Protein 1
Amino acid sequence: MSHHEVRPAELDIRDVSCTAGGREVLSRVSLTAEPGEVLGVVGPNGAGKSTLLRTAYRQLRPAEGRVLLDGADVFRMPRRSLARRLAALPQETPAEFELTAHDVAAMGRAPHRRRIGGDRLGDERIVTVSLEMVEMAELAHRQFAQLSGGEKQRVLIARALVQEPGMLVLDEPTNHLDMRHQFDVLALVRRLNVTTLAALHDLNLAARFCDRICVLAAGEAVAIGTPVEVLTESLLSEVYGVHTEVGTHPRTGAPTVLFGD
Ligand SMILES: Nc1ncnc2c1ncn2[C@@H]1O[C@H](COP(=O)(O)OP(=O)(O)OP(=O)(O)O)[C@@H](O)[C@H]1O
């Protein structure tokens, strides 16, 4: 795959506010993902993680503020140009009936395809390699709708990789995945030189794989920093209302979060 040749993007979320159901659900959130950075977004249910990510992949127009990809407003870009630079894994699995896993992954090529001609063989190779990266090549011929939750999730991650983006926006990429696939998918994201904004629930995974973590609570970014800076017992108690024991991984040095007593 030619991922290493793709230039990582810069995402700049500036003072973004969103309202839903007559309520402000994001309040002046600012966040910059530097090229190549893996930036995690954590926070309790309803904190606004998906809302923030949806503004980044242009599914939701913020009431105020701007979202810039490589300095250009995503809401002013042609859809196709955006899709060539940014791929998203939304929280809801689309119902792609009748399509095989291969077909769903291949949809990621659409923004790169020319009207006439194009590099069909090259496209096909990228689809195959991406499915291999998430260990779904062997199930490529299966109907997408009949796959398990974790298998579907991995096909959708492959579809995002097929886009060869400079920016990945992943809403709970480890949702439905077993322990090994959680690890493998995030390790894969880490290896690729692609800027990544990912909403994660598992703080230990976030600590292990993110360069920085943004903590959202009630629509506000209450902390942004490295895992060590952000994942403290006092902050977790304040934000989640749980007593935790934060330690240090003996080999990686990443913080580890355990429930307290
Ligand atoms: N269309 C909508 N109408 C009304 N309220 C909405 C709508 N969309 C989102 N909300 C509310 O906005 C808040 C933020 O939702 P969001 O999905 O961004 O949270 P989240 O942090 O991703 O949560 P979770 O961890 O549960 O996935 C929630 O209180 C939610 O109920």
Protein 2
Amino acid sequence: MVIDIREVTWLREDKQILRQVNWQVQDGEHWCLVGQNGSGKTSLLNIICGYIWPTKGSVTVLGQRYGQVDLRDMRKSIGWVSSSLMSQLHENETAERVVLSGREATIGLYTKPAEEDIERAYTLLEQFGCGHLRDAAYRTLSQGERQKVLIARALMASPRLLILDEPCTGLDLLAREQLLSMIAQIAEQPDGPTLLYVTHHIEEILPCFTHTLLLKKGQVEKAGRTREVLTKEELSRFFEVPLDIREGQGRIWVSLQER
Ligand SMILES: Nc1ncnc2c1ncn2[C@@H]1O[C@H](COP(=O)(O)OP(=O)(O)OP(=O)(O)O)[C@@H](O)[C@H]1O
């Protein structure tokens, strides 16, 4: 099992930020985590990566029960791509050096990289259609190119679990679709990582995401097979507004019901 979270509650200043969360992710599944602002998504990710200790409940990730494991070792198997990472990177680094720094998950590169790592970084950049940008300064890249570089960076460490935290934020339609098709490619790799994709936008949930968890006010509203979770009834209840849904390209497109 990749993630096994049982009865996890996290209290902060008497506020229940997560309430009795149960979540099991099996090998071979890829999950989407959907929740509105403040629903507890980041808190849950912090628990999975061992940055937050739950008030109650147990957390087992990649077969390791937290409390009995060296979290620094554990985190080497988990890639986390988020916009907060983007702001931490040194702006003058080249795209290639940013990718290379993923091997040790450091901000910046402190040792001379091995030739095979340079090759791997370039292959990853090429795979994402960014080979031509290897020597470009990270700060000069577009938002879409930056996201691809950050995903390539995370893949440098060959993680077993890859968290993509709202990767399409700030992307135009074309850049978003390009990034999504690259994410679909990662999902199809037979020995690739388990994906955990966080979003507010239902239409970003690609067919490769076999399962979806809807998180609301710190509680699991629904978790299961994507096609059983993303129904008109479930989504209308979740967003508390009558919705219509339409299927296209194996994805669900949501709109407000006409009055
Ligand atoms: N360290 C903390 N101390 C107190 N409250 C916190 C702490 N961390 C998060 N919260 C609160 O917990 C709630 C959930 O926050 P969280 O960041 O997990 O939500 P989120 O679903 O990731 O939101 P967003 O989509 O806006 O990023 C919020 O109300 C937030 O203010």
Protein 3
Amino acid sequence: MNESDVQTIEVALGARRYPVWIGRGLLGDSARWRARLRGRHALVVSNTTVAPLYLERIAQGLDGLHWSSFLLDDGEAHKTFGNVGRALEALATSGATRDACVIALGGGVVGDLAGFAAACWMRGIDFIQMPTTLLAMVDSSVGGKTGVNLPAGKNLVGAFHQPRAVVADIDTLATLPDREYRAGLAEVVKGAAIGDATFFAWLEANTDALVRRHTTTLVEAIARKVRYKAGVVARDETEQGERALLNLGHTFGHALETAGNYTALLHGEAVAIGMLLAARLSERLGMSEAPDTARLQQLLDRLGLPVARPAGMAPEQLLALMRLDKKNTAGTLRLILWRGIGKAQIVTGVEETAVLETLAEATSVNAASGRATAS
Ligand SMILES: NC(=O)c1ccc[n+]([C@@H]2O[C@H](COP(=O)([O-])OP(=O)(O)OC[C@H]3O[C@@H](n4cnc5c(N)ncnc54)[C@H](O)[C@@H]3O)[C@@H](O)[C@H]2O)c1
Ligand SMILES: O=C(O)C(=O)C[C@@H](O)[C@H](O)[C@H](O)COP(=O)(O)O
Ligand SMILES: [Zn+2]
């Protein structure tokens, strides 16, 4: 793939529509993204791992602007309200006016937090997503969900705030550790599992190439997932209906992440386990068939993702965390369940006993290994 081969996928939100650019050399291609900045101030939000690797690549493009950077410590545990406050202080110190732009350079943690800070500063300023993980490229940088975690639960505080552009420079994936890369593949599988059986079969046929990070296969996977998500977001920006399907595996997954104090499991790993739990629960409720669950489990397993509940996270503890999920209404569980490959459904009033039984049947494993086998 050449630097000139850039794919553009539009998130069609009328006056707030924006491009997702996917390709090589995009961070250094400031002629492309600089035009999306309107004012004279920019704050680059990144973290202590990513900034030393990639801040320099965009610095030249910011020449002539009044810009500074704000770096988070690395990790999900730092996606906190306190750090949003610190980012806002950095905007204040820099004298950012309403036409300032926040640039999120990093993975989903940086993107979610930076986007939320942009949504809050002076009641909303522009931001640009520059995702540097696979997960951020295929999921978190697109769609405008921003926010932070509380000790009580994942993403409990936030805002819908769309970026002005998404700059997905796949060159950055060269330094991404394998475990993080695999976690990103979980969100690719999720998109196919929810809404595209053909894509799911393509993923099954291309597993080895994806694990090897074969460039054209990887770019096709990224583009297919982004195209799918962009379509859902354009139809249902603020999750009044269809968009909730993008949460397949997340009620379980977020509970697993919270139970692990945001350190035991990566988001993508928790989503992989969560999708399997959702598939098993769906089977238990007569909504899906065992062969589909087996295909999902096999694909996740071949991609090197965990598929079972980690040891030390008790079903009752996880259920208690699931009760605080944002999709719930009127004190009942509202989950995204599965109707087999390519089909998901929002189900309200799911019986807690069925959830507990599903959680209890999953084999316990050691979360620290990042791998697991299923029962
Ligand atoms: N807003 C959304 O729609 C949405 C969607 C999916 C996930 N999320 C959120 O995204 C977060 C997970 O994002 P993530 O998986 O990107 O995790 P992350 O942001 O923690 O990044 C993963 C790790 O990779 C490092 N890293 C990032 N880019 C790198 C690079 N190019 N080279 C080397 N190291 C690099 C980071 O420093 C970090 O250690 C979660 O908080 C999740 O809730 C949000
Ligand atoms: O964009 C969406 O909508 C999603 O649900 C994408 C998810 O992969 C992502 O993890 C999102 O942050 C979860 O949102 P939440 O509303 O459950 O916090
Ligand atoms: Zn997710």
Protein 4
Amino acid sequence: MIFRQLFDRESCTYTYVLGCEKTREAALIDPVLELVERDVQMLDELNLDLKYAVNTHVHADHIFGNKAIKKILPEVKSVLGEEGNEEAMADIRLSEGDVLEVGETIKIEFLSTPGHTNGCHSLVVRDGPTTMVFTGDTLLVRGCGRTDFQQGNSKSLYKNVHEKIFTLPDDTIIYPAHDYKGRTMSTVAEEKQYNPRLTKSLDEFVDLMDNLGLPYPAKIDVSLPANLVCGLHDVPPGAK
Ligand SMILES: N[C@@H](CCC(=O)N[C@@H](CSS)C(=O)NCC(=O)O)C(=O)O
């Protein structure tokens, strides 16, 4: 598989390029509006034909890149998980267990992992002997997504991480949607051992999440309405 991990310094978001070596068809995971030109240039340089812009959830901290991508590449389809995203727009919606095929070699399996938001999904990709999971904001390196808006629920997050992500093989590589400390990836084994939140008991975890005291993301008021219509709105002046 052709694979790239790209970073947005402003929102600390990772965008991923997955490309099929055989057909050159590709998917982007979690593209950010302001960095679409960078992403499209990267795809072009890698001789990849973008088919899908997949979002792990309706993000609160940045606007999807979908609209800007479709302006450049009108055939690209937006993809979102079905569960919990009934009010959000997307060209393709996939439910728990569904697989998005990209070219001949890439299969992206959708897992419904609500908790950070009620519409969060994690994406499992198997590449030969390697399993990788794109966890969005459900599981971060040594952390996890907050649960204080968008129908967040700390009990669900804990249950979904333990039952759906921590049951993947120990050497599964975890690629998160964000990191705020410069880390790029982890593994299931590492997070089972060292994640300071998810190694707690459920009650301790719920208490911790209830008391994080984080300020709301700076762009939440523009990002949520924009992303509910799949980034297909007119971006208000000054929203960048
Ligand atoms: N300062 C950032 C927002 C930081 C933040 O709240 N990140 C979210 C994921 S993006 S909604 C989160 O879940 N963080 C978990 C944590 O423990 O930090 C901004 O203003 O955009």
